[in-house]
Amino acid sequence: RLMKVKPTGNGRRESYAHVPMPRMTNTYMLGGDKDPQEIVASITKGLYATNFGGGQVDITSGKFVFSASEAFWVENGKILYPVKGATIVGNGPDSLTRVTMMGNDMRLDSGVGTCGKEGQSVPVGVGQPTLRIDGLTVGGTA
Description:
The protein is mostly beta strands and 142 residues long. It has 2 helices and 11 strands, in the order βαββββαββββββ. It has helices at residues 36-41, 92-96; strands spanning 26-28, 45-57, 63-75, 78-82, 84-91, 99-102, 107-108, 113-117, 120-128, 131-133, 137-141. Strands 2, 3, 4, 5 and 11 form a 5-stranded antiparallel beta sheet that branches. Strand 2 (45-57) and strand 3 (63-75) form a beta hairpin.
């Protein structure tokens, strides 16, 4: 209904005791042609997030917030120090237009993530290459 398209008849639910609803399953992005080290070397000042621990997306606006469980501060192409509690905030559709480099290292996350929606949690899979995305809002401490 939100997208104004005909239902496809598919949905997911946490268990038989819950109502099925449209949910994400496996979300991934194909890799590009850049070496990840080349991507890091291109950063003048920014965050290199290598692992994420959770987040939220508002599907009506596209706004998101993700917590990086492992991240590093980069200046002049050099990784300087780890950053604790890094949070990345942005807008999904806008962020996709700000991808300036895509790594050749696409991989699926080996852990099991979850998608929470209306009190239900279902397992999901995610994967992507190293990306350079310009103009995201970043917060955290050294």
